[in-house]
Amino acid sequence: MDKTITLLDKQFELFISESEISEAVARIANAVARDYKDEIPIFIGVLNGAFMFVSDFLKSYAHACEVSFVKLSSYRGLTSTGLVKTLLDFPEGIQGRSIVVLEDIVDTGRTVQEIYHLLSGSNVKSFRIATLFFKSQMYKGEYPIDYFGIEIPDRFIVGYGLDYQEQGRNLRHIYQLKQES
Ligand code: IMP
Ligand code: MG
């Protein structure tokens, strides 16, 4: 396994291994299953970053469910622009249903806030957020993060769906940006 990788102009070092990620995904799926196994939740993945998490999460979730995706964007390069655009909206027919949004990572919470905003007025039965990675020190949101896999400090990470300028999403481990020395 490569300890250091280069994407464009930046170097990244190994941070969280594939097996730690799998364990975290299974933990989240089990926790969600405990709460939702007696109904048919709709899991809504946030593209692009959450595609790998959604895929592995669903393979660990052994109960009736539906899946769909939304697409928002706020990040450019290494920092959030603070602007969140809706590129693909919530599916039709979610009123009365239990929704669990699947996020790759929650950082400042702007994306989560925008999701709540998009869902307000849609009369869903219930609504929760599950995220694989959680930068809890950076989180400024007013909404609870109901399920999270791994808490991380304020580091920029890539891999397992997460990108640096659209690269690195295919990496099976998580790498963190190397500090300039
Ligand atoms: P927030 O809206 O500030 O909470 O940021 C959430 C979104 O920013 C995530 O869905 C990611 O797409 C992106 N993001 C946040 N932190 C990172 C990171 O460390 N690496 C790559 N993308 C990130
Ligand atoms: Mg994203």
Keywords:
alpha/beta; 22% helix; binds magnesium ion; binds inosinic acid; globular; 181 residues; six-stranded mixed beta sheet
Question: Would you mind describing this structure in some detail?
Answer:
The model has no long low-confidence stretch (mean pLDDT 92). The chain is built from 3 helices and 10 strands, in the order ββαβαβββαββββ. Helix 1 packs across helix 2. The chain is globular and about 55 Å long. The chain starts with a strand and ends with a strand. The longest helix has 19 residues. It has a 6-stranded mixed beta sheet with strand order 5-4-3-6-7-8, with helices on both faces. Strands 1-2-10-9 form a 4-stranded antiparallel beta sheet. It is an alpha/beta fold and 181 residues long. A hairpin with a 2-residue loop joins strand 1 and strand 2. Helices cover 22% and strands 37% of the residues. The site of magnesium ion has 2 residues, from loops.
Chemical compounds bound to the protein: inosinic acid, magnesium ion
Strand content: 35-45%
Q: Main β-sheet, in a few words?
A: 6 strands, mixed
How large, in whole angstroms, is the Cα Rg?
A: 16 Å
How confident overall, as mean pLDDT?
92
* SS-derived structural category: alpha/beta
Number of helices: 3
**Strand sequence of the main sheet, in spatial order?**
5-4-3-6-7-8
Terminal residue distance: 24 Å
Helix content: 10-25%
Q: Can you tell me the overall shape? A: globular
- Give the helices and strands as they follow along the chain: EEHEHEEEHEEEE
Question: Can you count the beta strands?
Answer: 10
Unreliable sequence segments: none
